[in-house]
Here is the input.
Amino acid sequence: MNGGDDKVAAPAGPPQPLEWKFSQVFGERAAGEEVQEVDIISAIEFDKSGDHLATGDRGGRVVLFERTDSKDHGVPRRDLERMDNSLTRHPEFRYKTEFQSHEPEFDYLKSLEIEEKINKIKWCQTANGALFLLSTNDKTIKFWKVQEKKIKKISDMNVDHLKAVGNVSSSSNSSSSIPYLANGGLSIPPGGIPSLKLPVVVTSNETSLMARCRRVYAHAHDYHINSISNNSDGETFISADDLRINLWNLEISNQSFNIVDVKPANMEDLTEVITSAEFHPTHCNTLAYSSSKGSIRLVDLRQSALCDSHTKIFEEHEAPGSRSFFTEIIASISDIKFAKDGRYILSRDYMTLKLWDINMDSGPVATFQVHEYLRPKLCDLYENDSIFDKFECCLSGDGLRVSTGSYSNLFRVFGCAPGSAEATTLEASKNPMRRQVPTPSRPSRSLGTSITRVVRRGADGVDANGNSFDFTTKLLHLAWHPTENSIACAAANSLYMYYA
Here is the structure.
């Protein structure tokens, strides 16, 4: 290798912290503009290529965006990715289309209103230029196909010939426009019946995007669906609610298989619920699910039809004497994500991000404090229900960084490579770095006051540095581009995009 040179390159140090820049925003509010509840974004997902982005909102709509930069400039994507970092492209997306995925429903058997809010969106494999995706609300999953359809227009009719015959009236609204159908009977005019109106030339130059619901997967969950996840086999997916995980075939909408059931015989014995579930990115037989007790279980579908027993469990045992009223609430995991290679699992509980190695179940390999400054405020957070907020998390495609959201529309990016001290705080605004302060040397369990808060009216408290934090503005949903350092995040009804 290398022309016979046997020298081994020295191991490179941890990657340098990224410098994040604002890319674009969709749906930005004007100053003082009130946000409608139905417009608040509730789900974000990049497709596998990163060329498409989908968002879902509380009004049941799905909006699709399409990548526009450097796609048609004659340079193959793989060559662009090899270019020097100084030539980093500014990613640009444009609005593609939107459709109403879910409508509000009413369950008459249980006298229960079912919200139209989109809980999750997952992209499926593309085929024949069409896009496929799954979307779900609390009860019903739908499989959508989005495809360009050519609009056919009649550009020429044989009307002129009819007028020449003299039997077609110019008035289209009167019954005399068809003179040989008079008084409910057929009367043949002198000279016989004229030629039929027929299109002579049909053109189809314009195209329109059509979203069509291919399948509806319903009536399989008694509790609210919190997760859907596609299998790497391209044929099946799972849906999870508080107590059960079901396995579906994409082609079969009227039947699913219950593969995990944690419902006790007596509901009074219930101690934990399922909070999130995801398939392994490459092993079609493996999936992981998290619980409200802060544990993650790895399941192998080859072991049994009903996966009551797990192959591995990942949990961190609390230090003796540290238990409080809030311990179990803040330990609940709100989201898990597999790394692209499937070796690591990222989990988000209320206070921290944890990175787990699936080959090591003794504890997390890294813990990142997201908003440790809120610990003295847990009582207030419990009273205003903020302690039950479900923050999502995401990993970069190369697995070197992780990210999650916080309050005051802030989100954090941590380096998780060995030796990395990267811990960046960003705000969902056009100037994401405007409230930066020096971060500590290592994102460990004592990040304390490394996050700055945005000072604004209506803030709910002040930390030790005098920075205010606002519980009413929270960044719950975000997604990392699969191949580039680019993040999309939702602040209320606005979609902000950043690149590094």
